[in-house]
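Protocol step 4 of 6: structure prediction from sequence.
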Amino acid sequence: MSRIDNQPATPPQRLLPDRALPPYAYLPGQTPHPTRDRDGHSFGNEPDAPAPPDAENWRFCPDYLYGIDLFNHGYCWEAHEAWEGLWVACGRQGTQAIFLQALINLAATGFKARWGSARGMQANARTAARLFQAAAQQLGPKSKCYMGFDVHALAAQAKALRDRPLAVNPEAPGALPFDLVLRPE
């Protein structure tokens, strides 16, 4: 079963170790915008449109796995972008789209937290919780695991983040004020 670790003892294992992580995590005002700024880590790189992931064979969807890697290593904006491409690819409708949109909002929660926006962090966490709950409801009471994760546990984690005050550490600017590692089944 999947795990969601709040304080990982070891750095998370990469799901796609051969796919490099960006040289920096985007944060407005501190780093160049990845795609719009000439110095951005992805400037001029138009990603290929991903195929919609197969919910049963999610382990074979590199863009989905890369989104998890990005999120787990603090690249929240970049994880948001990776999962958004998949959300668009699956037509923005249905259980899978709701689940992916919830992950997008979870990544946005981290992005807003790093940016120091308590209101943005809480709003995105609230949306993520609502979407994870909607996905769980569509999956039915007997379906606990979806695309490698316990959707109910993800909803609970998003609710906890929604209710958590933002405490920015001035000695670690840009660091997430919470530890959250997604470990699919």
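Step 5 (inspection) to follow. The radius of gyration is 16 Å.
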